[in-house]
Design goal:
Layout (H helix, E strand, L loop, with lengths): L4 E3 L5 E3 L1 H4 L19 E3 L6 E5 L1 H8 L5 H6 L24 E5 L2 E2 L19 E8 L12 E7 L9 E10 L7 E12 L2 E11 L20 E13 L4 E14 L3 E4 L9 E5 L9 E17 L4 E19 L6 E22 L3 E20 L9 E16 L3 E16 L2 E2 L15 E2 L2 E19 L2 E12 L3 H6 L14 E14 L3 E12 L4 E4 L5 E4 L3 E15 L2 E14 L9 E2 L9 E11 L2 E10 L24 E11 L4 E8 L9 H5 L13 E9 L1
Parallel strand pairs: 2-4, 5-8
Antiparallel strand pairs: 1-3, 4-7, 5-6, 7-8, 9-10, 9-37, 10-11, 11-12, 12-13, 13-16, 14-15, 16-17, 17-18, 18-19, 19-20, 20-21, 21-24, 22-23, 24-25, 25-26, 26-27, 27-30, 28-29, 30-31, 31-32, 31-33, 33-34, 34-35, 35-36, 36-37
Pfam family, one: TonB_dep_Rec_b-barrel
GO molecular function: siderophore uptake transmembrane transporter activity
GO biological process, one term: siderophore transmembrane transport
Amino acid sequence: MKKALISAACLGSATVFAQVKDSLQTNSVDEVVMTASRKKENIKEIPSSVTIVAEKQIQSQLTVNSDITSILQYTVPSLGTNSGQTSNTGQTLRGRQVLVLIDGIPQSTPLRNGARDLRSIDPSVIERIEVIKGASSIYGNGADGGIINYITRRSKSDKKISGLTQIGFTGQSYGGTLGVRASQLLSGKVNKFDYVFSLAYERTGYMKDADGVNLTPTYSPAKMDNYNGMLKVGYNINKDQRVEASYIGYASRSDLNLGLVTGKYGITPTIGEGVGKNLETTPQGTPRNHNFRINYDNQNLFGGTTSLNFNAYMQDFRTVYGYSDTFFGGGQSNVISKKYGARFNFDTKLWSAKNSQGEVMYGMDILNDQTVQKLEDGRYWTPDMNMTNLAPFVLVKIDLLKKLTIKGGLRYENMRVKVGDFNTLSTVKSDGTFTKSIFVTGGDLKYNALVANLGVRYNIEPFINLFGSFSQSYSINELGRILRTSTEGTIQNLETKPIIVNNYEFGATGQISKWINYEITSYVSTSKLGASFVQSPDRALTIQRSPEIVYGVEGFLHFTPAKWINFGGSYSWMEGITSIKDDGDYSAKINNSRISAPKVLAYIQARPIQPLSIGVDMLHAFEQDRFQPNSKTGLFAYGEGYVPDYTVFNFKASFEVNKNWRVSAGVENVFNRMYQPAIAWWSARDSEFVNSPGRRGTLMLEYKF
């Protein structure tokens, strides 16, 4: 059996939830390889919970819905449910903000979270998704709840050229909903060179609810063109050295021109109807997301005792939102972010004996993040923010008796943010008047801290393996939102302290007989100064800074009674409390914009005959009743609305015509259930009370050569 490899960045044990679902197409769960930019290691040496979404699971979910936020909600137990829109607001991981990466390149914009980082790549080019749950500092700013790393496809064949062609159609049983997608992947190897080239395009139709009514045009993925391109070239200098360069580009553009009919919260949904006002100066979407990366590996330094990994990257990102009359004179905002970074790390063996081994990894991360939010007419909503982060680190790993693994690490965060002068925007208040614009003097903000992690895993027997870990994250998340609502004339008078999260985790995993796999994990994360959106008396959103505690449990159970069938599921639950006055009273709860309702994922997958695979997925989100409405107005505050439960079933099937051709079909929301996404309820706003899509089908034809 091949060794399973996993990134040392996790410092923990892999939850193979999505991969067990894939076992009808693979020989063994243990053969799945997970690679990030730090260190490869055996899956049984990781002392915390990680979910790996494998390639065939991604392709299977793609048959149902190509939206990556939907794929994630059905494969990651502790991730919040998606909104069905272009924004991933509320889709937190373990109640905190997640850091999104593509091959280790940061996609998130923590300085001003634009909530479009999950939708930054087409799933057709993803080989697997690594989801590292719990606070982590291994990639720097923004990973309070964990990390989602999209690992792109690599060349797997020795042929000079091989490929995968996919053509698909999507639609509902209502006019105007027809969509089309196509992708072409080419890969190969020529002497010491290998390459992967991919192009993908998707055009969506109108999105309608279970009654055939157009969904809201706000943040709508309807009538949108999505483009994705990738080129990756590698060169094996010799058996120990390799260099690889890649480019990944993504863009989306909507030409939807629907009018907006605002509904009534909890009663009538907000819908799209008629013709829009054509007020946008720029189509909604993400006009560009360019990612460049070069990577060098040397596995034989200093007599073979040390290996080196170095990679440098650049990201250029711009996303555009719809027109809003909440600004004085109206306007349309965008978020622009450029990142330049480099990482290098050495891995040195300390000793290697029969029953024990030791190694140390050390290096430096360098990141420059330049982020700003403006209106399309040039007015600043946040100031220019220019962050530089230098972070040296050291990690130590000790293996004893082939059963016990101990890991520990330290990382020194050293961040500097230059903030430009700016005028705050005048925005509408609840009484119809506008706030007063004030001039804010910028300056330099400095942050530094030493963060640590420690983990232990004890593989007692195949049926019981225990793991526990402590990890920290360090972030200055949402600095831009704090600055843009400034009521002070200088940034030095604002509360901009960073968020340091302490994450404690304990779990057990194992295999009972040959056909039962399980894992159960409990966790607690604390922060002395967290950050949540709360509603001010004039119903404007502000940032609340106060001590926080988030805790929860999650687990999965999978059965494979025969080679032709498997089934199982997962459960996740969490709670979050805060001490608003920092007086030790934690009776207040963190609102539902971060604390998701309990979620059950279940599936059954069968192969009744060799060419045919069929499956059903279920998502059940429980109700969430944690707050009371205002006693005078009867209205819920933002993030505190009651969320009813809902259950959705998806169907998928594929038939292998021969070794080259495959036909796949999928149906989302099989029973055409009328329901609203969680955000429609907890946001407690008329304009955001929207329906989810009704039944939607996909047909896909695939040719492999």
